[in-house]
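Throughout our pipeline, every protein is held as a single compact record rather than as scattered files. The remainder of this section carries one protein's record, kept here as part of the documentation.

===
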Amino acid sequence: LTPNMPEVTLTMEPGMRLTGKVLTSAGAPVPNARVNIDGLHTGDDRYARSTNANGEFSLLIPATLPYQNPPFKLIVIDPMNRTAPPKATSEPFTPTVGGSKSFTLTIPNP
């Protein structure tokens, strides 16, 4: 920044908030589960988040994910084996500007 420099305007795209829980089939919360968006480029986990001690997660994603075609799904992945099949998958959703959606993802009991 310098004195008398021209004004700079930043425009931010409103995102979509995705929240929810990861539970076992017995209803117990799953802490540290890795939740990501299915349908992104291989290895792209910039939007992935881990669940907290109560199995809850929150992701903020752009309403227009670059280079992708909706609908998308949330998946629970094994962080130690990213090529393994997902442990759980959500119903499909399409991102909306300023939207929000809540999910409950259930994985088999360990």
Q: What stands out?
A: The two ends are 54 Å apart (CA to CA). The CA atoms of residues 22 and 35 lie 9 Å apart.
